[in-house]
Amino acid sequence: MKNLHKNLLLGTSLMLGVHVSNAQMQYPQTKKIDHIDEYHGVKVADPYRWLEDDRSAETAEWVKAENKVTFDFLDKIPYRNMLKERIEKVFNYPKYSAPSRKNEWFYFSKNDGLQNQSVLYRQKGLDGTPEIVLDPNKLSPDGTTRLGAFSVSKDGKYAVYYLSKGGSDWQEAYIMDLSTKQNLPDHIEWIKVSGAEWQGNGFYYSRYPKPDGSALAAKNENHQIYYHKVGTSQEQDELVYENKENPQRFNTMSVSDDEKFAYLNISDRGKGKEGNAIYFRKLGQKEFTPIVAEVGDFQYSIVDNIGDKFLVETNEKAQNSKVQLYDPATKSWKNIIPEKPEPLQGVGTAGGKMFATYLKDVTTRVYVYDLTGKLENEVKLPGLGTAGGFGGEADDKFVFYTFTSFTFPPTIYRYDIATKQTSIFRKPEVQFNPDAFETKQIFYTSKDGTKVPMFITYKKGLQLNGKNPTLLYAYGGFNISSQPGFSATLIPFLEQGGVYALANIRGGAEYGEKWHEAGMKLKKQNVYDDFIAAGEYLIAQKYCTKDFLALRGGSNGGLLVGAVINQRPDLCKVAIPQVGVMDMLRYHKFTIGWNWSPEYGNSDDATDFKNLYGYSPLHNIKEGVEYPATMITTADHDDRVVPAHSFKYAATLQEKAGKSKNPLLIRIDVNSGHGASNTKKNIELTADLYAFIFANMGVVVKGM
C-alpha cells in the first residue's frame, strides 16, 4: 500500500480491479445441537441455539473463527485501504450541532473532524468564547464511551448527563456542578429508555432492575420511574411509578418548561398496543390525574402547557396527527391545528409560537402558528430535503434549525421570530464538489400497484448502461421515515460511479399511519414486495443489472434484506444485512424485543406465528441455492437486536448455501453496539462494506 499511497499523492491515475471467489473458502464448522421447539403444533429445529449465550467461551471462539475468515477475505482486496483513506478525508470536517440556550449560556456539540466522539461546549451569548464542558473522548481508551442525554437544571446550576459504554443501550448518570464543571459523587446505573427531566433540586429517570444473567441479552421488564435528589445516593432515590402487573410497559416522565407539571407517559407495546396513556400532576402533588387513562391504539404527546391547559399532539381520529388543547378542569378537547393531508412529524414551541413540521412526498415543510392555532407563515427552506430543530424557550427571540439533503451537508440556520427571516448561522466545509452530483425522486410501481417514492443520487453524466454499481437502501418499519440526508461516507461510493437509491417503502411514516399500517404485522410482505420492486425498477431503467446491484439495510432493514434474498436470491449480486432481526420466532425473548410485537406480531399467537415463520430470514434459507455475496454485520455490545440473531443466521446460511460461489461472511465488531460506537469504527466498517461490494461486482476502482 506504500506505493499505492505514493501514487495517490503524485496524482497518478490508478485503476484497480479484483475478482473474488469463495471457491477455496473454508467456513468454520459450527457445532449443531438437537434442539426443537414446538409452535402451535409445528416443530421447529434450532440447532444453533447455543450461540445465544453471549457469555460462553464457546461462542467467543466461534466469533473469533468467523472474524478470521471475514478479515482474511477483506485483507485481500487491494483498494480497501484506499477507500478508507478517502472516507477519512471527506469525513474530516468540523461538525456542529445547533445551539440550545439555557439562561445566558448556549450549549452545542462539535467534532473537529475525526474525533471518535463529539465534544460538548458552551459559550455566553452567541459571541462568547466556547469552552469545553465535557469531552467523552477522554473517558475510554478506545473512544467508545458516548454521551447521551445532557440536561441542565432550570437555574443553570447543575447538569445531569448519561454515558453509555461500548455501544450498549444501558446508560449511567452523573451530575456536574456547572460552576466548576466537576462531577458530584452522584452515580446512577441501569438506566434505559429514559429522559432526564429536572423538577426542583432533582430529576426523573427511568430504569430497569439489575438484570439476571447477561446484561446484554437478558429480557428487560418492570420499567420503573425514580426521582433523584442532587447530592444523594441511588439507594435513596424515590420510586415514583412502576406497574409490576404489566412488566412489559414503558414508563417515562417529562416536565413542563416552567416545572409546574410532571407528565407520566405509559405505553404497552408488549401487548401489541400502538398507543399510550398519559397523566399529569402539579408540582407538590403525589397523585397523578389522567388525561388519557388507558393505553389503546392512539398516541398522545404533550407539546407544552398554556397555563393549566395542555397542548397535545395526537393521532386520535387523525391518522396524520393534529394538535389539540386539553382543559383538565372541564376534561374538554379543542382543535388547535387540524389534521392535514400530509403527516405531521412534530410540533415544538419557542418564543410564544408553535413550529409544526410536516412531510410532503418525503421532504420537510415547516409552518409557524400562534398558540391559538392561527397560521402565521411558512418557513422557507433552502430546497427539498430534511429540516429539524425549531424548539426552544418561551422567551427566545430566535430559534435554530438544521437543513440537509443527499449532497447538501447539514447547515445550521437561524430563524428570527419577529421578522420571520432566516439566515445561515453555520455552514460546514466538506471536501467534495456538490455540483458534481444530482438527485432525483421517482415513483415506481410495487407488486400490488402501489406507487412508492425513491430517491436516486449519482454523478452527473451517468450513463444508463446497466454497469453502475448501485446500492439500494431501505428501512420499512416502525413508523419511521427514511428522509433525504447527507452522509460524508457516501461520497467515495458516488465518486466511483456508484448510484445510491433510497426507497421509501411501506411500513415507514412517509405518508402517515396508513403507510405504516400497510407494512406491519400480517401485511409485512408488502414491505418486501416494495423493496423487490425498487430493485427491479433500477434494473429495468438500466442503472444497473443484477450483477451490479447491492441491497443494504440495518436493524428492521437487516430483516428486510434477509427476507428479500430468501425470496429473491437472484435479484442482486451483493447483500448487506446489518444488525438484523433474523429470528422472528424468538426476537421477543431478548432485552426489549417484546416492544416490537405491535409491529411484527408474536409467535405465541397462532396466526402471527404462521406469518412470521413464512418470512423469518433464519427459517427460510434455502438449501443449495446460489445466494448473493453476503456480508452480515453485528457487534458484541448490541443489546437492542442481540448478535445471536446474526450469529444463528450466518451459521445457517453457511451450512445450507456454503457451496455457493459467492462469499457468505459475518463481520462482528467488538466493543460496539447497534450502531458504530465511534468515528473510527464507523469509517472502518464503511470501507469494508464498499470494498466487499466493489470486489464482488468486479468493479474497477479508480484512484481518488
UniProtKB/TrEMBL annotation:
Residues 28-427 form the Peptidase S9A N-terminal domain. SUPFAM superfamilies: alpha/beta-Hydrolases, Peptidase/esterase 'gauge' domain. GO terms for molecular function: oligopeptidase activity; serine-type endopeptidase activity. It comes from the Bacteria. GO terms for biological process: proteolysis. The keyword ATP-binding does not apply. InterPro entries: AB_hydrolase_fold, Pept_S9_AS, Pept_S9A_N, Peptidase_S9_cat, Peptidase_S9A, Prolyl_oligopep/macrocyclase. It holds the Pfam family Peptidase_S9_N. Residues 1-23 form the signal peptide. Its EC number is 3.4.21.26. Residues 486-697 form the Peptidase S9 prolyl oligopeptidase catalytic domain. It catalyses: Hydrolysis of Pro-|-Xaa >> Ala-|-Xaa in oligopeptides. One of its GO terms (cellular component) is cytosol. Keywords: Hydrolase, Protease, Serine protease, Signal. Belongs to the peptidase S9A family. Cleaves peptide bonds on the C-terminal side of prolyl residues within peptides that are up to approximately 30 amino acids long. Has an absolute requirement for an X-Pro bond in the trans configuration immediately preceding the Pro-Y scissible bond. This is prolyl oligopeptidase. It comes from Arcicella aurantiaca. The lineage of its organism: Bacteria, Pseudomonadati, Bacteroidota, Cytophagia, Cytophagales.
